[in-house]
Design brief:
This protein has one helix and 22 strands. By secondary structure, the protein is mainly β. It is rod-shaped.
Length: 298
């Protein structure tokens, strides 16, 4: 009887010691880290230069600081690859999301990870590209990135936005005793070139010389008969109208086009009683040269 009791006690001790050893091994053994890669297009996933699979990818990995590289497999466009350094924490799944574009600035995404918080409360850290982006949690502003703020455990809606960039919205789950870190890259909005407005063609107005009792119309240095005569123009000829005098309503016309040293060309004034305005679009004719003055003023 004593021998049986001794055997039972020995077996119990062996079982207890074995169980304790297995328990301690489970505690002391490093917990694997998890990483989830989600991308807008299929990509090849590399960790520390080694190919580990294609996205979407959800794998376990050792807890350490690793180099992550995502290479787009879609060759329909020249997508810009993504490479970064990621800290994988044991017992925690790090989530990497990426939307690819043809330039780094137009690409976007986020990396969501957890760290044990010694304080024992839940907190949120938001880092962004570009910096100073506005951070909203459940439609409440938490300031501008980089920002750290307390957060209640549970699900929340995070929005990061900056002028000139597309807003980034994502659901997050805060856990008591952990610091939730979200690194966000916003996609820069493409600037659409604005077409230059087609200038409205300036309608040039001409004046046509009418019949006169003398067979010509005098051109003077100023509006009115007090101006000195500088030329004569013939009925039926047309000249570019430069201006109209507000008092006499005489017309200032261009006798000769602009030339070096004479920016306005040669100009003069004629009576509106023997001239009428003509729209160039209706009468597209060249301006004739004026008849040189050959006779003294009568």
């Amino acid at each position: 009887m004593k021998v049986l009791r001794t055997i039972l006690i020995s077996v119990a001790l062996v079982v207890l010691i074995s169980g304790s050893a297995l328990f301690l091994i489970g505690i002391l053994r490093p917990k694997p880290a998890g990483i989830s890669v989600q991308t807008s297009i299929p990509t090849a996933v590399y960790i520390d230069g080694n190919f580990v699979g294609r996205s979407p990818l959800d794998i376990s990995f050792k807890s350490e600081d690793v180099d992550l590289k995502l290479v787009p497999l879609d060759t329909s466009k020249n997508y810009f690859p993504f490479e970064t350094r990621v800290m994988l924490t044991g017992g925690v799944k790090t989530i990497v999301r990426r939307n690819f574009a043809e330039t780094l600035e137009e690409s976007s995404g986020e990396i969501v990870s957890f760290d044990k918080d010694t304080v024992g409360t839940a907190s949120l850290v938001v880092i962004s590209i570009p910096e100073n982006a506005q951070v909203n949690v459940d439609a409440i502003s938490k300031g501008f990135s980089p920002v750290k703020t307390p957060i209640s455990p549970g699900n929340h809606q995070l929005i990061v936005k900056s002028p000139g960039y597309s807003d980034r919205s994502l659901s997050i789950n805060a856990v008591s005793g952990y610091k939730l870190t979200v690194s966000v890259q916003l996609a820069k909005l493409a600037v659409t070139p604005q077409a230059s407005p087609t200038p409205t063609p300036k309608v040039q107005v001409f004046v046509e010389i009418l019949q006169t009792p003398t067979g010509y119309l005098r051109v003077r240095t100023q509006p009115g008969t007090n101006g000195n005569e500088i030329d004569q123009v013939k009925p039926g000829s047309k000249y570019l109208l430069l201006s109209e005098d507000a008092v006499t309503h005489w017309y200032k016309i261009q006798l000769e086009p602009p030339a070096p040293g004479l920016p306005e060309g040669r100009t003069g004034w004629i009576s509106n009683d023997f001239a009428k305005k003509v729209d160039q679009s209706d009468n597209p004719i060249a301006t004739p040269s004026a008849t040189p003055l050959s006779l003294p003023t009568p």
